[in-house]
Amino acid sequence: MSENDKLEKIVEARLKLKARFEEKMLQTPSVSDEKPMGTGPVNRHGMPQLPVGQIKTTKWPVLDLGFKPDISLLNWKLTINGEVETPKELSWQDFMNLPQTKDISDFHCVTTWSRMDVPWVGVRFSDLAALVTPKTTATHILCYGYDKYTTNISIEEALKDDVLLVHTADNKPLEKDHGGPVRMITPQLYAWKGAKWINRIEFLNKNKLGFWELRGYSNTAYPWRNDRYS
């Protein structure tokens, strides 16, 4: 199969997957909320640019569990399994051979700072999902990091076009402090929903709490509802 054929197959599978969840995606609060809380001009999702309780910053504070794993590109792997038809384990080269997406989006941390207009390069979560074909029973994902961190996300949030597994930020390779070589970003949710140093995505047939969710953080994490804690 040629590279063009592979790309067409991934795009076709992604579009079919999105069609399955399109209605749920349109009903998520970060798209459909009629009374979002925040200030500033309307962003591309129809929400105020700066969510309630947030402060703009140009800095990128470093937050983690106190352990920063040092993962070489040679040793990095991404496992995608669970409620899927075709589980995969991707090497760095496999990951880089997938369609690469450039995007600019905002980064909202639950600790009240927001970093605006960050340029990213990475692979859409929806393209990764298209590789493994989630079963009809799949409702959520649980993301795992090399630092033993976990976080849960509903599939309708994860499939949004701006949810990426990024290897580049600010036009340079993602630094280890911020989750390099690869982390997930979730621009329409608080940033703890994007695992740093990501190494596994598990599709689930029911919701399962992650590290911070087990410790009182919100399951859903919508910035424009001040949805920080359960």
Automatic annotation (TrEMBL):
Top-level taxon in the UniProt lineage: Bacteria
Question: Where in the numbering of this chain does the Oxidoreductase molybdopterin-binding domain appear?
Answer: 70-212
Protein name stated in the entry: Oxidoreductase molybdopterin binding domain-containing protein
